[in-house]
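> forwarded from #structure-qc
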């Protein structure tokens, strides 16, 4: 039961220019930067100025097998469970306001430590107590997710969510997914709204939850 309340070789030429991705696009990260072994997934957002209560957006991720399900509760990484059992994924802390410059929350991933039976890492946004406060993803502005090579701090891709959350009367979203294809890793921008927020997402992936 889960309560939801390496140095870069000098002879490698890396060309990363247009790193913006749109909903539905798939990026082969391994081809884009062959030196990549550890990444940081950073997210940020701001709140529409006219909204009263603070908008608390959370990033979470799920380690999924070939059946599209988690193997155990620790495969659900979020503010109340900051690392998986294999120490391959680490949530770097919860921001409750989205205030300030730079990433508001981030998740660090050592790709070499992810067990081979894990084929996908799903990243989600959810609003803490969103239904209770009548807050929805459409209340978020300047939301984004980006992937950074942890070794050299190079931003590999950025998915801006402004257009994809416009008018979205839900509290949860599948933002993007990291996919393993043999030795290669891809990232696909999803932008898929989910009714029921984080609890509904967790239940879909075989995590028993309580709270909202």
């Amino acid at each position: 039961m889960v309560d939801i309340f390496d140095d870069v070789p000098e002879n490698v030429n890396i060309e990363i220019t247009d790193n913006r991705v749109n909903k539905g696009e798939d990026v082969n990260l391994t081809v884009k930067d062959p030196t990549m072994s550890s990444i940081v997934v950073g997210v940020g957002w701001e709140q529409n100025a006219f909204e009263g209560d603070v908008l608390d957006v959370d990033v979470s991720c799920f380690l999924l097998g070939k059946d599209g399900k988690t193997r155990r509760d620790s495969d659900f990484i979020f503010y109340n469970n900051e690392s998986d059992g294999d120490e391959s994924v680490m949530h770097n802390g919860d921001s409750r306001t989205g205030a300030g410059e730079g990433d508001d929350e981030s998740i660090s991933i050592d790709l070499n430590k992810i067990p081979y039976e894990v084929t996908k890492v799903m990243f989600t946004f959810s609003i803490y107590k969103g239904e209770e406060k009548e807050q929805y993803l459409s209340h978020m502005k300047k939301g984004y997710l980006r992937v950074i090579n942890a070794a050299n701090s190079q931003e590999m891709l950025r998915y801006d969510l402004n257009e994809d959350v416009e008018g979205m009367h839900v509290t949860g979203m599948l933002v993007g997914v990291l996919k393993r294809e043999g030795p290669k890793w891809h990232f696909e921008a999803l932008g898929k709204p989910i009714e029921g927020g984080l609890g509904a997402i967790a239940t879909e992936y075989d995590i028993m939850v309580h709270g909202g």
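QC bot note: The radius of gyration is 17 Å. The mean pLDDT is 86.
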